[in-house]
Amino acid sequence: MEKENQKEVFYVGLNNPKEIRKSVLESTRDIIQVIKTQDSLKQIRTKKYVLIEELKNQMVQIDNLMNRLKRALPSSREKEQTSPSISNKRRIEAPRKIKDIDKLEAELADIEAKLGEL
To answer: Are 20 and 14 in contact (CB under 8 A)?
Structure first.
C-alpha cells in the first residue's frame, strides 16, 4: 500500500506564490521575535529570583546583627529607671521659669503704672 500512496502524488497550483512566501517569511520573523522576547523574560525572571534570594539572605544577616546589637546594648528597663529622674528635674525647672515670668510681668505692670503717672 505504501507504494500505491507514493505513486499518487498531487500537485496544487498556487495563486500569487510570491505573496504567500512573503507572508510565511513575515510570520516566521514575528515568531522568532516572540521567542526572543520570551527568552529575555526568562532571563529577567531568573535574575529577579537570584536578587530576591540575595535580599532574603541579607535580611537574615541584618536580623542576626540586630539581635546581637540588642544583646550588647543595655536593657530598656534601665532606661525607664533613669528617664523619670530626668523628667523630675525638668518638672522642677518648669515652675521656676513660671515664677520668673510672673515676676517679670509684675515688674512690667509697675513700670507701666509709673509711666501712666508721668
So the answer is: yes
Q: List the end-to-end C-alpha distance of the chain, in Å, as a whole number.
A: 139
Per-residue pLDDT tens digits for 36-46: 999 999 999 99
Please provide the average confidence, as pLDDT, over all residues in the chain: 82
Look at the block and give the residue holding cell 534601665.
78
Is-contact 38 44, C-beta < 8 A? Answer: no
Transcribe 68-118 into DSSP letters: HHHHHSPPHHHHHHHHHHHHHHHHHHHHHHHHHHHHHHHHHHHHHHHHHH-
| pTM of the predicted structure, to 2 decimals | 0.45
